[in-house]
Amino acid sequence: xxxxxxxxxxxxxxxxxxxxxxxxxxxxxxxxxxxxxxxxxxxxxxxxxxxxxxxxxxxxxxxxxxxxxxxxxxxxxxxxxxxxxxxxxxxxxxxxxxxxxxxxxxxxxxxxxxxxxxxxxxxxxxxxxxxxxxxxxxxxxxxxxxxxxxxxxxxxxxxxxxxxxxxxxxxxxxxxxxxxxxxxxxxxxxxxxxxxxxxxxxxxxxxxxxxxxxxxxxxxxxxxxxxxxxxxxxxxxxxxxxxxxxxxxxxxxxxxxxxxxxxxxxxxxxxxxxxxxxxxxxxxxxxxxxxxxxxxxxxxxxxxxxxxxxxxxxx
Length: 315
Fold this sequence. Notes:
By secondary structure, the protein is an alpha/beta fold. The chain is 26% helix and 23% strand. The chain folds into two domains: 2-14 and 59-307, 4-Layer Sandwich (Metallo-beta-lactamase, Chain A); 18-32 and 40-55, no CATH class. Strands 6-5-4-3-2-1-14 form a seven-stranded mixed sheet. A seven-stranded mixed sheet has the order 7-8-9-10-11-12-13, covered by helices on one side. Strand 8 and strand 9 form a beta hairpin. The longest helix is centred in the C-terminal third of the chain and has 18 residues, at 279-296.
């Protein structure tokens, strides 16, 4: 089972601005004072020594994650990261170039989770088959509406790829290739669904866009998250932001720690980063999650990782 992140942001695309880019370069250069950077190897070593928020950028595309093996590709959400995924598929650089059937699971239909679909290159090829899965009975109509001529120049229906729209039942478990996919409803405006993907004894849970309150108790999700190799969890806000945005339908890294530790998860992936958070703010939220886990669960062995555009795992 292979996992790759194509978009990790929430709400809206958040590209690095010229101002933030310059600010980042200035901070990087400050670390180079007195250092020998006379060749590529030494430059690379310097970059590797930088604080995490300066050695990388976490990306500005919205939610899109793939789970695959040699014969099956599952796409979790169709945010703007889906554009790069489509280009890689068409170029033959990603997945099996001999297979052109892809399975797209939509957690919900908010724009940041579907706005990459109009720019997904494979949709333009008659040899491609796209199997869509969603719990929303009118989701085909909603996807078509996104590409209505009032909003977009080319309709989804007009594209020559074969498209099948499968409406999932609440507790339905389906098998696709070697994968088994189950789902659980989350607390989010107009709803959202987490997906659990299992294959060959490995388990990945994709649980974005959820708020956990007295009415939606976190403990109720422990069996669904249980013993996952990777839990991809909505950590859009810090606690101050969460307090001011009650009912927006998002969570924090600390709540993710509670979920991961109590569900005996191996890796917690902080995901759906706030579009208002720069790389440094995301790293501060990561540090806060680490301190929280060390204080509340000193013997816990959960590995906490910031989801980064382009990040890959081979389970």
